[in-house]
Write a structure and sequence with these properties.
The chain folds into 2 domains: 53 residues, no CATH class; 148 residues, Vaccinia Virus protein VP39 (Rossmann fold, 3-Layer(aba) Sandwich). 30% of the residues lie in helices and 26% in strands. The longest helix has 14 residues. It is elongated, with a radius of gyration of 19 Å. The protein starts with a strand and ends in a 16-residue tail after the last strand. The C terminus is likely disordered.
Length: 259
């Protein structure tokens, strides 16, 4: 049996079955091999309820909705939709470390910025930045799976021309960026500090995530002379936002946007 269901914005979900567990997995693998997205959906009961809860969209400040391509909700009710198929890469938008940086992008991108996403994973931050109005996005990762997933998700969300994905190390980049985001871990963020500071445009900001609250001050120290303007906390995780002086030698103002 095949069932088609419209979910808005030109998207239609196709439901097939019933299948045995093995048949369902094989069917999903075959569909993916043909270049489509697919997932195995339980038939009913508690397993289906859990699956639907897991695939529910992540809503950021009422403005940005992040979901899987197979999420069952009406996309026409959302202002901006980011569809992410991780396909083996890290990041679906639901983890607190990602949600904090998504909130910073929603609140701070005004349009026309150049953005660097370091450790892009599935590309959720890179794609969100482009959909929110960034003029160009550079996404880098050391994982081939992440590079492939980010490239595919940029195309899926129709921002492939503005999102450039590669495995280029940050230290080898030459451009400067208005916005830099990195969701990694404390040790990696400290190690990357000199390279990221060198890539900041005057007046630009850097969002760093993957920290415990106890690690914020240690990581912030590595990013001096940039000034801390926000230290959001969500669940057991923390993030850090620093800004470069608008003019070399000046101290940037604190905007008080911490929560």
């Amino acid at each position: 049996m095949v069932d088609l269901r419209s979910v808005g914005r030109g998207r239609t979900l196709l439901f097939g079955g019933p299948f045995s567990d093995r048949e369902a997995v094989d069917a999903a693998i075959g569909i993916r091999a043909a270049g489509w997205t697919a997932d195995v959906r339980p038939e009913g009961g508690g397993h289906l309820a859990a699956w639907q809860a897991h695939t529910r969209p992540v809503i950021v400040d009422g403005r940005l909705w992040v979901c899987f391509p197979w999420s069952e909700f009406d996309r026409d009710q959302a202002r901006t939709v980011v569809e992410i198929d991780p396909d083996g890469a890290f990041g679906t938008g639901g983890h607190p470390t990602t949600r904090m940086l998504l909130a910073q992008l929603v609140g701070r991108i005004e349009g026309g910025e150049s953005v660097l996403d370091v450790g892009c994973g599935s590309g959720v931050l890179a794609v969100a930045a482009a959909l929110l109005g960034a003029a160009s996005v550079t996404a880098v990762d050391i994982s081939p799976a992440a590079i492939a997933a980010t490239t595919a998700n940029a195309v899926r969300n129709q921002v492939g021309k503005r999102v450039v994905v590669s495995g280029t190390p940050v230290a080898e980049l030459t451009d400067r960026f208005d916005v830099i985001v990195a969701n990694i871990h404390a040790a990696g963020l400290r190690e990357l500090a000199p390279a990221l500071l060198a890539r900041m445009a005057p007046g630009g900001w850097v969002g760093l995530s993957g920290l415990s609250p106890a690690q914020v001050s240690l990581v912030a120290a590595a990013y001096r002379p940039a000034s801390v303007i926000a230290t959001p906390v969500l669940d057991d995780w923390a993030a850090l936002v620093v800004v470069a002086p608008a003019v070399p030698g000046e101290n940037p103002p604190v905007d008080g946007n911490s929560h």
